[in-house]
Amino acid sequence: MFQTFFLSMQQDVKLFLFFPVLCAIFRTIFIKVYNPYDSLAGKGRIIWHCYRYGFWWGMDFNAYVFLISLILVTLPVTFAGLSPQMGDMIRVYGGLVYALILYGAFAGKMIFYYHFHDIFNQTLRLGAKAEKHNLIDIFFHQDHGAAIIAGGFVYWFVCKYSILAFLHLPSVPYPIVGNTILSYIMNTGIVLVLIVGFYWFRYGGTLFHDNKPEWDTIPAIVKKDIFFARATVDDLPALKAVRKKKPNELLEKTDEENKQAIAEIIGDNDSYGNPLLCFKRTANGPVITKPSHIFMLVGESYMHQLFEPAYACLNLVSGGNTLFHDPHTATLPNFLSAGIISRPSIVSLMTGIFDAGLELNEREAWWHSTVPTSLPMQLKRLGYHSTYWYGGSLTHGNFNQFAPACGFDRAMSATEFCGADAPKTWVGVYDNVFLEKAAELIQKQDSGKPEFHFLYTTSFHGPFKIDLKKYGYSTEGIMTDAPAAIKEDRAIQKELGTFWFSDQAIGRFIQTMRKAYPDCLFIVTADHAINLSCLKKMTGHDETIHDRRTPVFMLNHRELDQSVLSGNVIGSHMHIMPTIMELIAPKGFTYYSLFPSMTEPLDHVISPANWLRADAMGYYDNDFYQPLGPGYAPTDLLEGPRPYLSEIKGMKAITAYLVNHPELLKPADEWIRSFK
Questions:
Q1: Residues 17 and 86 placed together within one structural domain of the fold
Q2: For residues 34 and 533, is the Cβ–Cβ distance under 8 A?
Q3: How far apart are the C-alpha atoms of 146 and 134, rounded to whole Å?
Q4: Among 623, 525, 503, CA closest to 572
Q5: How many CB atoms lie within 10 A of CB 598?
Q6: 137 membership: H or E segment, kind and range
Q7: Which CATH number fits the domain that encloses residue 527?
Q8: pLDDT tens-digit map of 332-373
């Protein structure tokens, strides 16, 4: 009987061995596809530790293949009369189920990395409220969904015969011991080895749970290389880490804990009740003549990177360049968005408060009331009628309710005012149609009173299916001087061509509005920047932190120039509202802002994901940062502590405190009355 157990148990081991090999193959494919380096020379030790540590980390799941097979197959074969042949069949098809799970996780990771330049992280949770049909559209039209599904069938057969090959590996014969006592001792020893061996593999080469592989214990030589550190983590452990991490621990903190964090940035001052009222500021007096119209134009992924001289040969920003290089435009080379995805950025731009992952636009209390830092509400105090123009449908994300609650007098969906026949992506109406129609309506409906217009475009968003030739785009016509590797890649051309298309629409809108309203104030930025990994074919290296996280920023008025920014080379979305106030508000006007204006010197800026100084820029999810300025290459990374942690903690605590106390919110008109 134990002989049967011994031989069957070896089949379990053979089945188990297949999956670390499979995970190593997936790791190799990931490295091959996304490797940011021109050469891997000199990285031998890093690669070795990446695979070694990845093997042990993967045991968090892979080790259970042995245990499940042992319980479901070997024990029935030994004690219930299940035939070894039937046992192997169960192993094959059970193994195929697990192999398909690994395939799905790997395919998901490859897609996720393409969009977010990271393995699975908490951003994954933000998809819970996304429009599912839009995600399906992206999957099939941008992420090669049909090919992934078709590949799954091929993968099934390859795995099936690979598992069979592993199961046909030679087995060790059961050692025959003539002495009964010795036989019992040997059998007991084998069982103990199995138990200890399982736990040893399950805990990643240790017998102690506390010593299991985790992110913080990745060998230093690997962790210093962010790409290979990410490559080390198998896909199921990465998903497990996302699942284990609570959706938002801020909501579980007590009022006292939040107040303590808030006190770190405002002091022990609870006399106001609402912590935002501690951020009262007084305007120094107008810098420019009060403009009749203010336009805040937020382009989808309208990033600074493509405005840099290094990418001039691509000729993708001829529309925006007119404003960018205008002598009356102030720009910043280093700028942070309020969020790394769209909605948190838009919410923060509207409300003036820090994103804490709490999806304020989805909360009913915020559909009726707002905060004293609200941008349109505070502009209303200066006499501005405000309109929010969105290139898609405002019902997505409940902005049809959230935007008016912030103080916008109107909220306009391009899917409605552009007509049912307007060309659309799944996100919204084409930027050229949206902005042309918005410009027409702005002029037609002009009240003669000061107006603020917040416009948000949508077209530069995957999947990239716009017929670019129809709108005048051709590779040779636009990218005459671009590298051949860029011009000859059709997928790259669709992506970069769509950026050009959006930029052209933005440029025409700016020209139209400047002609109609010569005294207008323009603020041009993006909801966020993105990873344009295709550009490594030009640079020879992966995108830098600066590339991935710097949206464009332009501030234009006929009475402005670069000096208005007081020598600053840094800024953020959170500084836009106070900057507008300091530009146009009368002396002595009081307003509320968490952050100071960019018209005064800034030491540093923060966002939920990043920190920025004139000399450096880093992430909050690791200890590495990119040094900026002369003497450093774009790819240089240094290791050091993450600064301004108490500040970012306090800003998030303010948002959490307000969510927990919706009674502190008021309708915009009520706030205005209270400030008189």
A1: yes
A2: yes
A3: 16
A4: 525
A5: 27
A6: helix 132-141
A7: 3.40.720.10
A8: 999 999 999 899 999 999 999 999 888 899 898 999 999 999
Q: Which residues contact 391 (CB under 8 A, 6 or more apart)?
A: 300, 414, 427, 428, 429, 431, 434, 456, 457, 458, 459
**Size of the chain in residues:** 676
Domain count along the chain: 2
Domain-located, residue 635: no
Tell the burial category of 412 from Cβ atoms under 10 Å away from its Cβ (0-12, 13-18, 19+).
Answer: buried
Q: Is residue 332 part of a domain?
A: yes
Contact 431, 505 (CB under 8 A): yes
Convert 447-514 into a string of H (helix), E (strand) and C (coil).
CCCCEEEEEECCCCCCCCCCCHHHHCCCHHHHCCCCCHHHHCCHHHHHHHHHHHHHHHHHHHHHHHHH
How many other C-beta atoms lie within 10 A of the C-beta of residue 27? 23
The verdict on residue 606 lying in a domain is: no
Q: Are residues 15 and 137 in the same domain?
A: yes
Query: Cβ atoms within 10 A of the Cβ of 425, count?
Result: 23
Structure tokens at 500: 């050009």
Q: Which residue has the tokens 């021109």?
A: 38
Same domain, 113 and 233: yes
Same domain, 379 and 239: no
pLDDT (tens digit per residue) in 31-45: 999 988 888 988 999
Burial 641-657 (b: 16+ CB within 10 A, else e): eebbeebbbbbbbbbbb
Q: Give the Cα separation of 250 and 329 in Å (integer).
A: 40
**Is the separation of the CB atoms in 565 and 598 below 8 Å?**
yes
Same domain, 229 and 275: no
**C-beta separation of 465 from 141 below 8 A:** yes
Residue finishing a domain among 244, 263, 280: 244
This prediction has a pTM of 0.78
Q: Are residues 8 and 61 in the same domain?
A: yes
Q: With H, G, I as helix, E, B as strand and everything else as coil, classify residue 609.
A: coil
Which of 182, 217, 244 is at the close of a domain?
Answer: 244
**Structural domain contains residue 636:** no
Q: Compare 188 and 293 and report the one with higher pLDDT.
A: 293
pLDDT at 130: 59
- Strands 280-282 and 293-299, sheet pairing: unpaired
Q: What is the mean pLDDT of residues 432-456?
A: 96
For the chain, the average pLDDT equals 92
The domain in which residue 152 lies consists of 2-244
333 shares its domain with 384: yes
